[in-house]
Structures are given as C-alpha cells and as structure tokens.
Amino acid sequence: MAVHLLSYLKEQFTPGVIDLLSRELSESPTNTLKAVNGSLPTLLGGLARRLDASGGASSIISLLAKGDYSDTPLDVSQVLDEHQQTVNTVTAGRGFLNEIFGTNLSQTTALISTYSGTKPQSVQTIMGLAGSVLMGVLGRQEQENGLTAHNLSTLLLGQATEFRTAMPAGLEDVGNLLGFNELKTPSGPQTEVQGTDNFSGTVINPNIPKSPEGDRRQENVRWLRWAMIVVAILVAALIIQKCSENQNSTDGVSTDSTARVESNAVEDTSAAAKRSVQEAHGQVSDSTAPGALGIRDSSRAPIKK
Q1: Is the whole-model pTM more than 0.70?
Q2: What does the domain layout of the chain look like in residue ranges?
C-alpha cells in the first residue's frame, strides 16, 4: 500500500512537539492540538481537491519541480528549537499552500482558528509547517524518483475518503467551502487505486505509485548524467595532453624537445651570413621587395657575358 499520508503527518505532531509548538505560538496545548487535528485533513483534502481539478495535478508537479529541498525538514520537530528556523520553514511552505487553496486560504485559516480557539496566525504556522514537510516529501520524489502528475493524483485520490471523514465535527464549513463532500476514493481494487509497492516506506522514500512516464524520466536523467561524465573525462584528457606538450618559452610555440630552440627575436645579420645568402639565393636584400626571384632590383642585376 502507498504511504499513509494522514498518519504520516499526524506522527509529526507528538505530545512533545505540541508542547514546543504551544510555547512558540503562545497557545494552550489543548487548543494547539485542536488546530493541528483540523489543519491536517484540511491540508490533504485541499490538495486532493486541487489535483482533481482540471490542470491541478500538472500545476502542483510544476511547483514541486522548481523547489530546493536541501533544507526542508523531514520532521516538524527539527525546526522548533529556534524561532527563526520555524519562521523559515513556514515561509517555505507558503507557496505550496497558496497553490492548494488559492483565494480560499485566508477563509480556511479563519474557520480553523474559530474552531480551535487559536489565533489565525497560529493556524497559518501549523499549516505552513505541515505543508512544508509534505511538500518536501513529494518534491524529493518528483526530483529524484520521477513522481508524475498521474502518480500524485493516484496517491491522493486513493485516500480521499479518509481525508473527508477525518475532518473533526465543527469544521463542516471548511468542508463546504472546499467541496470536501466530493472527496471520494475511486472504486476498484486497492492496487489499481493506490499503486503497488514501488518505493520503500521510509521517510525519505515513501511508498508512492509510479508510472511508465516516471520510469522514462528517470532513465533520461541517468543517461544525461553518464553523458556529462564522459564529456568531462574527454575535456580533462585534452587539457592534460595540451599541458604535457613542450613549448618555446619565448614564442609559446610547441616544439620538438630534442631540437635547439632559438627565439625569433634573434637574427644573424653578419657579413658572412649575407655572403652565404647571396651565394645560395642570389640576394641579400629584403625578400619582400619586388622583382624576379633572386634578383629584386633589375637595374642592378649583373650582366651575363
């Protein structure tokens, strides 16, 4: 069976976490727990409804694909020791909540606040923490294991009925606002609804159904990584080869290491050298001067007898 999302999020909020969170929010533990119990099924139910809407699944996957989850906590307790960590985590999850609830986010927060007796800001913090953790789990699956829009819809809609029935009594207005009456798990065998055990059931790799599209994406990523490695090796080999060649320190020209290197700046202009050139080529003047080869100045050419 696929990862049990509601249980996974509820396990984040242990009694110790509720106490820490209550002090952070200046709320009573009892009211904080009520806000948590109302926020979690609302978050998951809202996500299921968003995925079921036209284009919703693709929009969520697109958002997940753009995220950086290197600092996203796997557990709420990891960010409650310092106030700034809590704030950063809530801020990171805000975009996810906006994508899920849209213009209904403020009203949803207000309804849960009234139900639980907590401040609206406290409810926003709780939903931001839960949303950030959930986004991190799903986002890592999208980037590392090829989670697709179809996979995500299958996972959430496979547990949709449970999200609806987990809503506490007194939060019917939230259900009506978000259309939770329409949250129903599709009929059919469980393996078809939630997929088979393709991923391990750990926090880092929750058990989420895959599809052929996801397999193709993973294969493309693996192929690209190998291609980049091969290119890097070839470039390194060319650099090493270039560095190993002998070079003339004056002109920067690669030469035979057994040959004597003579700078272009040195030129033998002695009288003996000029006579040698004259005997060999019939000229000692500038080779660029006009005239026949070996006789650049026809007026000074020797007369043959």
Answers
A1: no
A2: 5-209, 211-255
